[in-house]
Design a protein that fits this description.
The protein is α+β, with helices and mostly antiparallel strands. It contains 9 helices and 18 strands. It has 2 domains: 134 residues, Creatine Amidinohydrolase, Chain A, domain 1 (3-Layer(aba) Sandwich); 227 residues, Creatine Amidinohydrolase, CATH 3.90.230. It has a 6-stranded mixed β-sheet with strand order 4-3-2-1-5-6. Strands 7, 8, 9, 10 and 18 form a 5-stranded mixed β-sheet that branches. A hairpin with a 2-residue loop joins strand 8 and strand 9. The chain starts with a helix and ends with a strand. Bound molecules: zinc ion (3 copies). One zinc ion (ZN) binds next to loops. The site of one zinc ion (ZN) has 4 residues, from loops.
Length: 368
Amino acid sequence: MGTDSGVFHDRLARVRERMSDLAVDALLLSVGADLPWLCGYEAMPLERLTMLVVPAKEEPTLIVPRLEAPRVDDRPELFRLVAWGETDNPVALVGGLIGSRITLAIGDHTWSRFLLALQNELPARRWHPASMVTSALRAAKDNAELDCLARAAAAADRVAGAIHHGDIALVGRSEAEVASDIGRRLIAEGHDKVAFVIVASGPNSASPHHEPGDRVIGRDEMVVCDFGGILDGYCSDITRTVVTGEPTPEMQDMYAVVSEAHAAGLSAALIGSRCADVDGAARDVIADAGYGEFFPHRTGHGIGRDVHEDPYLVDGNHTLLEAGNAFSVEPGIYLPGRFGARLEDIVVATEDGPWSLNQADHSLVVVG
Ligand code: ZN
Ligand code: ZN
Ligand code: ZN
């Protein structure tokens, strides 16, 4: 785990404060990112229940299957550990810890079989998603988290650099081959896991979430490379669009618009800006250039332990950016059946203005 427990004490204090504001009597966390964020332990996504029960005022208890108990770092100062055996009923154990508490917030990713069993065990309670408590707290990254995100972004930048410098060849190879090279490189540069790799070439570059396939990359094509991994629990996510030869004037013009939209989104990413307005800043540039209908997705998403989390930079989201919010700025233009381009960096809202964690070249680099 490696993170010192002061960080977890601070997070637990913030969680309790928010529980009290929302009149939540107990928080129940199982699989998903809330649990490792709060206490450093990640539940195995298996049929045996792991659950941290955090009553509003009393000591938290982590319920784990006995065979997984050795994976739990001893953190007596953070929670009490209860290991259950193969013939125990963990749902009844959780029920006992909840007692007569009424308003419960349960992890959004908890398996429905456990939620249904708990609802049967604990009738006449009010159930809410745990994100109601945790999401805004997780969105405002603390320094330990910003350090992880910055290291993940720097590692992703080095992979983008490898593409730009021709260390990963594109022409004459399939998208899937290039994608597996990018995945290996993500690991070589320090990620613990590959989260996803999109390599979309030629007409496929007009599909924002294209699945890399057998298509062999040719000359004079746009290629959108969007990839990310997980480093010390935190995600990277970067997109660079390259061209395998000479871009046409239309490709250059379109890319210039994407690049300008990205710059506009980045400079709007200030503490106190509405998420919708950051989206609007990027979108207006694209609309003004006549490409409005070809930018079909939101400008960005929060990032942390999950690749996509709050805050979402999307029209209609009037949430104000706060210090420590980390999110992508990733406008794109996609001309169906022809070509597309996207430019994506991870950005943090800070007191000193927008801080771009990614520094890889923004230009439409010509590669082989
Ligand atoms: Zn995406
Ligand atoms: Zn991406
Ligand atoms: Zn993204």
